[in-house]
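Go through this:
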Amino acid sequence: MKNDKHTDRHSSADLTAMVEHGDSESDWDAVKALTDADVDAAVSTDPDEADLEIDWSQAVIHPESRKKIVTMRVDADVLAFFREQGRGYQTKINSVLRAYMDHARKEPDRPLKSGGTNSRRSS
């Protein structure tokens, strides 16, 4: 979803409080009544989801572990993509890196090839 001036962001706690106080304008009964087919149909007609097919079936969010603070260079469009995902984007980046690491460990003789356009090679 693209961030625009018509989008309001609320935490889960904010939304819960809004529902409890009757401040929510959402029809939560209608949402609860939606079937998976209804949701799939809505997603398939959403222009923001057009041609977006990501297989996250192997992705796993691991429980919190000791994290290390690092500074690294990431292409601007890659960072923008993850930030557009909203809160928790750093955890998603970590999950993608972990999936890469797990794959490389399972097949050490077949490392994934770098497809980066910004790789620098010495001549």
